[in-house]
Amino acid sequence: MNRQRAEEIAQSADMKNVTYNGQQIYIQHVNDQQTARVFALDDRQNEFDAQLTKLHETW
């Protein structure tokens, strides 16, 4: 996923279908050019930084 799209998703009020390594995640914010702060929807307490290139939006 590119940085601009990740930022759009993070700022959107609508929930988007985004996965990281096959797991549905929520993008909290984009850190820099390469990572975003995320958490898995089934484990909201476990925040981590994910590589933008490994985030995938599904329709």
Fold and architecture overview:
A hairpin with a 2-residue loop joins strand 1 (18-20) and strand 2. This protein is 15% helix and 49% strand. The protein starts with a helix and ends with a strand. The protein has a 5-stranded antiparallel sheet with strand order 4-3-2-1-5. The protein has one domain. The chain is built from 1 helix and 5 strands. The mean pLDDT is 95. The longest helix has 9 residues, at 3-11. With 59 residues, it is α+β, with helices and mostly antiparallel strands. The radius of gyration is 10 Å and the shape is globular. It is found in: Spore core. This is H-type small acid-soluble spore protein.
Strand count: 5
Work out the strand percent: over 45%
- Major beta-sheet overview: 5 strands, antiparallel
Determine Rg (CA atoms, Å). Answer: 10 Å
Mean pLDDT: 95
Structural class category: alpha+beta
Low-confidence stretches: none
Number of helices: 1
Q: How is the largest sheet built, in terms of strand order?
A: 4-3-2-1-5
Termini Cα gap: 14 Å
Shape: globular
Helix content: 10-25%
Compute the number of structural domains.
Answer: 1
**What order do the SSEs take from the amino end to the carboxyl end, as H and E?**
HEEEEE
